[in-house]
Amino acid sequence: MNATRQLAGIGFGLTAYAMWGFFPLFFRQLAHVSPMDVLSNRAVWACLLVGLLLTLRRQWGKVAAVFGQSRQLLMLTIAAFLIGSNWLVFLWAVANQQVVASSLGYFLTPLVNVLLGLVVLKERLNRLEWVSVALALAAMTNEIVSLGSLPWVSLVLAVTFGTYGLVRKQLPVDAVSGLWLETLAMLPVCGLYAFWQAQAGHPVFTGHDLRTTGLLISAGALTALPLMAFAAATQRLDLASVGMLMYINPTLQFVTAVWLFGEPMQSARLLSFGLIWLGLLVFSWSAWGKYRQPR
């Protein structure tokens, strides 16, 4: 792999994950707006802003080329469904003081990437990678047994984002064009939701105070920037490397949840985090060993 290309991929990945890590601080300011309302505004404003960027860069020809590829359109629609579901669950978690659970989900994502590589890409796992997967499964078992419920927030976030990364990695579509098409694919669902809410007398896109409107517009930009950086990273790095950089996001979310938001940290959940962190340590050791092997 070209060293410059790999270095650029790491830079894009660091940018994306650092921005996502601070998302709870931003979206907590919109806790008074329903998660689906925020999602709809994110999709609309991100689509408009990315469309403006495509116009300024004169890259609509790339978008037109994708419209001639039915398989790519289908894959982008799947990607839109995955990332939209991820956004919605994350927004719900922030609004309902479940940022610790969302942090656990994003810690799980690298190990989901490993499993997806095994099942979908037919990659082979070494002994250490199997150990890391086993530790992740032990953590989820502890969550279910100790807390008495399925950790659905953590699992949905991990599976949707891990699968989204896999789909985007296999798409030969540049970051900006891909993001515009993904947000475009979300608009029919958001439009139907807005129409349904309007019938009940609830405007989704209007009627907010000036501060809330500014935050919702800003959410579009904050949605676009890290996703473009993430897509650029997935095109330059292997899936394992993308997964390892992922640690930055949940670490920042965890610190935010516990030290800034004051969310409770049950001892049982602390054990789950301990197992996940141990699994990530084992996985990182394995990845480092692969990196040091002569190419």
Description:
With 295 residues, the chain is mostly helical. It has one domain (3-292). It is built from 13 helices and no strands. It has helices spanning 3-21, 23-27, 35-57, 60-67, 70-95, 99-119, 127-147, 152-169, 175-199, 210-234, 239-245, 248-260, 267-292. Helix 5 packs antiparallel against helix 8. The longest helix is centred in the first third of the chain and has 26 residues, at 70-95. The radius of gyration is 19 Å and the shape is globular. It is found in: Cell membrane. Keywords: Cell membrane, Membrane, Transmembrane, Transmembrane helix, Transport. It is a multi-pass membrane protein.
TL;DR?
It is found in: Cell membrane. By secondary structure, the protein is mainly alpha-helical.
Please describe the topology of this protein.
Elements: H1 3-21, H2 23-27, H3 35-57, H4 60-67, H5 70-95, H6 99-119, H7 127-147, H8 152-169, H9 175-199, H10 210-234, H11 239-245, H12 248-260, H13 267-292
Helix pairs in contact: 1-10, 1-12, 3-5, 3-9, 3-10, 5-8, 5-9, 6-7, 6-8, 6-11, 6-12, 6-13, 7-13, 9-10
Structure keywords:
295 residues, mainly alpha, globular, EmrE-like
Described by its quaternary structure, the protein is single chain
Tell me the number of helical segments per DSSP (H or I, 4 or more residues long): 13
Domain count: the total is: 1
Describe the global form.
globular
Low-confidence stretches: none
Mean pLDDT: 86
Radius of gyration: 19 Å
The amount of beta strand, in percent, is under 5%
Helix content: over 70%
Number of strands: 0
Class per helix and strand makeup:
mainly alpha
Largest sheet: none
Distance from N terminus to C terminus (CA atoms, Å) equals: 10 Å
Q: From N to C, what is the helix and strand string?
A: HHHHHHHHHHHHH
